[in-house]
Design goal:
Blueprint: H1 7-30, H2 43-58, E1 64-68, E2 82-87, E3 95-101, E4 121-123, E5 126-128, H3 136-153, E6 160-166, H4 176-182, H5 184-187, E7 191-198, E8 206-211, E9 213-222, E10 228-229, H6 230-233, H7 240-249, H8 275-282, H9 296-301, E11 305-312, E12 322-323, E13 326-335, H10 341-354, E14 361-370, E15 373-374, H11 380-393, E16 398-402, H12 408-415, E17 420-427, E18 439-441, H13 442-460
Parallel strand pairs: 3-6, 3-7, 7-17, 8-16
Antiparallel strand pairs: 1-2, 2-6, 4-5, 5-18, 8-15, 9-13, 9-14, 10-12, 11-13
Length: 464
């Protein structure tokens, strides 16, 4: 870089030059089946963490790069391997914490994938594979942006940087809070960038300013001591599936809106969003009606929702003429911003116990909480982020809410209350995160890397 070349232009050039390598590295990460759930090969998590650590080391940015674990509170068990890389700030510059996660969701039914889930495949301008977007692309946005910044600034880099790449986000971040406490000094920062959200669409960037919370639990419904013949006793004895169906139906009204007393809604304006757009992005066929009331984005961003995500019952292949004694279901509820997840769970448990039909016996287990989050947009870092996103994408960014949850953000706020939090991402409405055929829009990835590199350059030029 010559003295006449604006540093910003040099960042553009460095990012453009580095994108092919970044995509190749992303493909290598996608090939590692880093699923944190115990039923899967846990050595792949260590392999994935080591691969990320090697990428961080090779940037030349960090003073220290480690693969670390923390204990899961209340147990002697260690959480999954995370990568922690740090460099100290110099000359009065701020410190930025860059977060993403290297673990991925299970693939589900492989037959539903058009190409193998752990074989990165490019078609129609998108990279397909499990984790190609959520969230190994987030990992590589950080790495590629740091590479570009290092290339432009060289040894003059004064920005403090902490890179935290978690290994169990998809499995509940069980050791996350403890990891923050164990490494508080290394992670303490002025600005936190969480690269695990999405954009308005593939060409319009967004800052996520609200997230719903969540509570998840297993409900077991029991009506019999043992299975009984459905012909001999059916019509007089309630089976567990009948009780479960009737009980679950009380959670919603006839419009599909949540009908649980004590679950609250947030009153906030939302942008225009057409039903036709919803149908295209969600895969809702013509003739199938939407559920709930009010604006579509209001239903997704600001109101609670309840989904039954799993059920243990006799399979169709093993069906017999038997009254089932016990049924278990997993209930996942999204909680509106402004309500604590524990309060929402208490409302759900109270409702279910009050509506149990036929005196069915209910058991609640595996309860998990994640609080909602509202971003404070008044800080100076938000302005820098919007400037960087506008230049990186060539389109002014929008503020969005997200119906999904990132529960660990509440932990970040609790541990580092003075840090400004920026929630960004590389997903678009057609990413299909968590679903078969997950994919990354390649132009969005390029723009996301450029935007973050520009943000880091702006932070490196700022004095506290």
């Amino acid at each position: 870089m010559t003295s006449e070349t604006p540093r910003k232009d040099a960042v553009h050039e460095a990012v453009a030059t580095g994108i092919p390598t970044a995509l190749a590295d992303l493909g290598a990460l996608v090939r590692i089946p880093s699923i944190a759930w115990p039923a899967f090969d846990q050595t792949q998590l260590q392999r994935s963490a080591e691969a990320v650590a090697a990428l961080a080391e090779a940037t030349g940015v960090f003073d220290r790069v480690e693969v670390k674990r923390s204990r899961i509170p209340g147990t002697e068990e260690l959480g999954q391997p995370a990568v922690l890389a740090t460099r100290a700030a110099r000359d009065g510059r701020p410190t930025v914490l860059l977060y993403a996660h290297h673990d991925v969701q299970p693939t589900g039914d492989d037959a539903l994938w058009e190409t193998p889930p752990f074989e990165p495949t490019v078609r129609d301008g998108r990279l397909y594979g499990r984790g190609a977007a959520d969230d190994k692309a987030g990992v590589m946005v950080h790495i590629a942006a740091l590479r570009a910044l290092r290339e432009v600034v060289g040894d003059d880099l004064s920005l403090g940087v902490a890179l935290f790449i978690e290994g169990e986000e998809e499995y509940g971040s069980r050791s996350f809070g403890q990891f923050l406490a164990d490494n508080a000094d290394a992670l303490r920062s002025d600005v936190i960038v969480v690269a695990d959200s999405g954009n308005w669409d593939a060409t319009t960037p967004a800052l996520t300013v609200s997230l719903r919370g969540n509570t998840r639990f297993t409900l077991t419904v029991r009506t019999l001591d043992h299975a009984s013949h459905s012909g001999m006793f059916g019509g007089a004895v309630p089976d567990a599936l009948l009780a479960t169906v009737k009980l679950l139906a009380t959670l919603w009204d006839d419009d599909g809106a949540v009908a649980v007393e004590g679950l609250v809604e947030r009153d906030a304006q939302t942008p225009e969003y057409a039903e036709a757009t919803l149908r295209g992005e969600a895969g809702l066929p013509e003739g199938v009606q939407t559920i709930g009331r009010g604006s579509i984005l209001g239903r997704i961003w600001n109101k609670p929702s309840i989904t039954v995500t799993g059920i243990d019952a006799t399979s169709v292949a093993a069906a017999s003429n038997t009254l089932a004694p016990e049924i278990s279901v997993v209930v996942s509820a999204r909680v509106a911003p402004g309500q604590r997840a524990e309060e929402a769970y208490a409302a759900l448990e109270t409702h279910l116990r009050a509506h149990a039909p036929f005196g069915a016996q209910l058991t609640f287990s595996d309860v998990d909480f994640g609080d909602a989050f509202l971003v404070d947009t008044s800080g100076w870092a938000v302005g820098l982020a919007r400037t960087a996103l506008a230049e990186g994408y060539g389109v002014e960014p929008v503020d969005i809410g997200v119906g999904g949850s990132i529960p660990f953000i509440a932990d970040l706020v609790e541990q580092f209350p003075d840090a400004q939090i920026l929630v960004t991402g590389i997903e678009d409405p057609h990413t299909r995160a968590h679903s078969p055929n997950e994919s990354l829009h390649l132009d969005t990835f390029r723009r996301a890397v450029l935007s973050e590199a520009l943000l880091l350059q702006l932070l490196d030029a700022r004095t506290n």
